[in-house]
Write a structure and sequence with these properties.
Radius of gyration: 18 Å
CATH superfamily: HAD superfamily/HAD-like
Shape: globular
Order of helices and strands: EHHHHHHEHEEEHEHEHE
């Protein structure tokens, strides 16, 4: 049976984060929104860092001044253009090597990311991943809501969402299936621990220290 290779997206497959840059592109030609977006996002980020707000509120604050109310078709077109550029120019060189290696081995490939679904899906499709999990946007009458349709796919929620995927697709995981997970961030410690093989890719300082302590593989996928 095939094994499973799971990849985080931001700073693991990609060289940079996706959400902030996607939001910037959404307001690029609407300068009257730049200041309220900056103030709202900055204030919410400050409160999140001090433990006063959940992380998803940072996404909501940025979305409020950039995307809320936009027609679904417009958001999807913008996300598709963003994904195409990201796949062409924004991926780490080592990511492409790892993806090819797992494909050649016949493994099941999955992206599990806190990024929003409209970004993750077209990237996953272009890279020919088998499944993807992300933070799902919510739509009201085909216009983007100010809320989300799922919990933020971050930290322990990634394990919850992955187990739900395995419950829905029992053919994916068997008793001898080896799960490999690639991530750059300590925030993924739960999924790294859950996996049979945790790989720290260009890791942040905290993850690097844990990887050394636990004997996890540390890889440099380039910039």
């Amino acid at each position: 049976m095939p094994n499973i290779a799971i990849f985080d997206l931001d700073y693991t497959l990609t060289k940079r984060g996706t959400w902030g840059r996607f939001v910037v592109k959404a307001v690029k030609f609407r300068p009257w929104l730049w200041l309220p977006l900056l103030v709202s996002a900055g204030w919410t980020q400050w409160r999140y860092k001090r433990g006063h707000l959940p992380r998803i509120r940072v996404k909501q604050a940025m979305m409020r001044w950039s995307l809320v109310g936009m027609p679904r078709r417009d958001v999807m077109v913008m996300a598709d253009v963003f994904a195409e550029r990201e796949v062409q120019k924004g991926l780490r060189p080592g990511a492409l090597t790892a993806i090819k290696r797992h494909k050649d081995a016949g493994d099941v490939l999955i992206i599990v990311s806190a990024a929003v679904d409209v970004i993750v899906e077209p990237i996953a499709d272009r890279l020919e991943f088998d499944h993807w999990l992300a933070t799902d946007m919510k739509w009201d009458n085909n216009r983007l809501s100010g809320d989300f349709a799922s919990k933020n796919c971050y930290g322990p929620e990634k394990v919850t969402r992955l187990n739900r995927l395995f419950d829905d697709h029992p053919e994916l995981k068997h008793s001898d299936t080896i799960i490999t997970f690639y991530s750059d961030s300590y925030s993924d410690i739960e999924l790294l621990t859950y996996s049979d093989l945790g790989v720290a890719v260009n890791p942040d300082r905290k993850l690097k220290a844990i990887a050394v302590e636990r004997g996890w593989d540390i890889q440099d996928w380039g910039k």
